[in-house]
Design a protein that fits this description.
It contains twelve helices and ten strands. It is an alpha/beta fold. It has two domains: 35-127 and 255-324, 3-Layer(aba) Sandwich (D-Maltodextrin-Binding Protein, domain 2), CATH 3.40.190.150; 129-247, 3-Layer(aba) Sandwich (D-Maltodextrin-Binding Protein, domain 2), CATH 3.40.190.
Amino acid sequence: MNASLVARLLFEGFVALSALHAGAQAPAAWPSKPVRIVVPFPAGGPTDITARVVGQALSIKLGVPFVVENKAGGRGFIGTSDAARAPADGYTLLVSSIGAMAINPRLYEKLPYDSVRDFAPVSLLVTVPIVVVVNPEALPVRDAQELVRFLKANPGKVNYASAGSGGSSHLVAEYFKFRTATFMTQIPYRGTGPAASDLVAGHVQIMFDTLLTSTPFVKSGKLRMLAVTTATRLSDYPDVPTVAEALQMKDFEASSWFAMWAPAETSTDIVRRLSSEVAIALKQPDVAQRLIELGAVPVGSSPQELAAFQNAEQDKWGRVIRRAKIKPE
């Protein structure tokens, strides 16, 4: 065997061994195993259902289970902290809400997580319209203009229900008060259900509620919808104006929302892939319809858009919290 042949065989052997070694060291293509979606709220709630609808669509598309794990407690502190501490390998995600990721960071002086530093934004999933509803017997006003006139003429005589201090139903009402220079007294409840029940019973007169909770009562005539706080009218209620339209405040807008994050330092490629797949999932007719039935509006966004939106929401609700001097319960 001549020297040139030996050299060639040695070279080819080196190349083969190098390729084998590289293959052993290269990470498996993502995803290659089940992905955990942490939801920091109880099963059956809107955040949980949104996560499950999107997770199921991702499971079908990507060929691995996306499994929702509910880790409720502490206004979202427990589950959110768990997700923040998880390995940044693309196999743990967080689906959470405006409360845990935009309101709590401005409401509490200290949190066991940093909603910006500890997470990589993936995508805004849905927005949830907030509607202004009144008990028509307890507060006989027919539109937002009449409401403002009544509040100005009767300061301190109207009580509004909230699902709890510091939540979106509380802050949106306070935002409305500031923008209209009116006064109402908050009556906080432990959850949307008890608040809505007392509104229907006439124990309180008004609520800034999610569309999902209010819809059955509006359709039955037990509650009257005066306006929506979204930027545009709702397709199911085209005759109900936005607050911005009704009161000529062009920049008045407020919604609840849910989004997806990964732990900080998760691969940019994985985050981009996830964001793209979520956008595709939200456009699927069956997925979109299921979310719409929940009273949500499918959105989807880039990671950069979610980051900017989250920062803007923190600033906006932080101003409301400071002005209203809201303290955590």
